Amino acid sequence: MQIREATADELPAVMNVLDGAMLEVGVETVRAGIEGDGTLVAVPEDGDRILGAVVLDGDQVVAVAVRRGRRSQGIGGTLLEAAADRRTRLIAEFDADLREFYEGLGFDTERLGESGRWRGTR
């Protein structure tokens, strides 16, 4: 698997991965990430099908998603590691069930009030 920046032609495929993970991320946000350096994709070495994507807005993780059949294979973590290599810091907000995932990647986490949401910084 390789991690690389998404191309403009891959916008529909990236949106498909995000939609499949039931994440509400606007097309304009993803397009802006692709036009900058804020959308990374994971693709197999021998193909071009997008397995997962991470969308950044500056140092904010807007979304990270992996195709259903490829989850729990380290793809999401690899995407976030690649994003961390491109930023001096990353900030993510997530549900409590993802706390262990983010902490395992070296994020310092804190609860955001009574909402059940968490914030992680790395």
Description:
The chain is α+β, with helices and mostly antiparallel strands and 122 residues long. The chain folds into two domains: 2-88, 3-Layer(aba) Sandwich (Aminopeptidase), CATH 3.40.630.30; 89-122, no CATH class. Helices cover 30% and strands 30% of the residues. It is globular, with a radius of gyration of 14 Å. The model has no long low-confidence stretch (mean pLDDT 94).
Would you summarize the structure shown here?
This protein has 122 residues and is α+β, with helices and mostly antiparallel strands. The chain is built from four helices and seven strands.
Provide the descriptors you would attach to this structure in a database record:
Aminopeptidase; seven-stranded mixed β-sheet; alpha+beta; globular; 122 residues
